[in-house]
Design a protein that fits this description.
This protein is α+β, with helices and mostly antiparallel strands and about 210 residues long. The protein has two domains: about 5-110, no CATH class; about 115-210, no CATH class. The chain contains eight helices and four strands, in the order αααααββαααββ. Strands 1-2-4-3 form a four-stranded antiparallel beta sheet. A hairpin with a 3-residue loop joins strand 1 (about 140-145) and strand 2. Helix 1 crosses helix 3 and helix 4 packs across helix 6. The radius of gyration is 19 Å and the shape is globular.
Length: about 210
């Protein structure tokens, strides 16, 4: 039987605690659904306690990109620790299946930075939203920017690099699936194309947003 402290800790974790971003709260609930309440409690609390003792540090303090990646690594370190503990209990294959669900459901919430377009907005308004959000996650070049087409090449995906460095290589292959699912349903007039993906072995990502 769980102790009184364990039960109360889990209640705090699985409800809308101000300690965690919404995507983490969704992830906790997915774990609870997949493996049960008590295993979730033990994995999550253990990971949280360990995360307090770990902080990624940038090797090049004055480099803005590395500072950004350090922030991302500190953001996802809890995910890495949860994954590590999950593997100890359920093995690699089963853990990957569970974490795919965690990523796909939590990832849709992570993209909340792309606020919905208003009634009279168009692709140029989306372009502003994209640049504002993704400048915190990727290094990219704009190939075309117009009212009908926004095309970019992503030279570095800092989230992907952070996943690799945190030992989440198995999970990184689903990162582009999260984006594809989200943007494919973002707006009825916007078509999303992604035909190169760093997470799938390409040197760059290529994204095109078309306003139809």
């Amino acid at each position: 039987m769980p102790s009184f402290i364990e039960v109360n800790c889990l209640v705090a974790l699985l409800h809308e605690s101000i300690m965690f971003k919404p995507e983490y709260r969704v992830g906790f609930l997915v774990l609870k659904r997949e493996i049960g309440l008590l295993p979730t409690l033990r994995i999550v609390i253990s990971a949280i306690l360990k995360s307090f003792k770990i902080d990624a540090e940038s090797e090049q303090i004055d480099d803005k990109t590395n500072k950004t990646k350090t922030r991302i690594k500190n953001y996802f370190k809890l995910l890495a620790l949860m994954y590590e503990r999950l593997q100890r209990q359920y093995g690699r294959d089963c853990s990957n299946e569970i974490m795919q669900k965690v990523l796909m459901e939590g990832g849709q919430v992570f993209f909340r930075g792309f606020k919905p377009l208003r009634l009279n907005d168009d692709l140029t308004d989306f372009t502003k939203i994209y640049k504002n959000f993704e400048s915190n996650n990727i290094v990219f070049d704009v190939i075309e920017e117009s009212e009908q087409r926004f095309e970019i090449v992503i030279r570095r995906c800092l989230i992907y690099e952070s996943f690799i460095e945190l030992g989440l290589e198995d999970l990184s292959k689903w990162m582009c699936d999260i984006a594809f699912n989200y943007f494919s349903n973002y707006h009825p007039r916007m078509k999303y194309i992604k035909d190169r993906m760093i997470a799938r072995g390409d040197d760059t990502c290529h994204e095109v947003f078309i306003w139809e």
